[in-house]
Amino acid sequence: KNGPPQLWAALTLQTRGLRERATRSMAPYSNFRLANPVTAKNWPPLDEVGNPITLTECRTLLHHLHLQEIERMREKRNFIMPSIRPGDLLEIRYELSRSQQTFAVFQGYCVDVRNRRLNSGFVVKNTYDDVGVE
Question: Which pTM was predicted?
Answer without folding.
Answer: 0.48
